[in-house]
């Protein structure tokens, strides 16, 4: 003897299957899904690299500022900056362009 599913049981199974498909889709494609997480991790890595580059630039500028400060004056750096900014040249130098 074969048993047939009632209409309500059939509707219940269809609704459950649709809910399962919806939640599976949301888990992969949704705003908190797997693909969004991978995208956020990639963006995080990129921002960390950018932060590190900017920190290195800040450290370099901080070093140059300290070397040109009143407490610590690096004469070689001062000479280099004056030549670069003012276009100064010593009498015994030859400029090649």
Automatic annotation (TrEMBL):
Coiled-coil ranges (or none): 37-71
Source superkingdom: Bacteria
Keywords: Coiled coil, Membrane, Transmembrane, Transmembrane helix
InterPro entries in UniProt: FtsL/DivIC
Keyword Transmembrane: yes
Record field: transmembrane: 6-28
Protein name from the UniProt record: Septum formation initiator
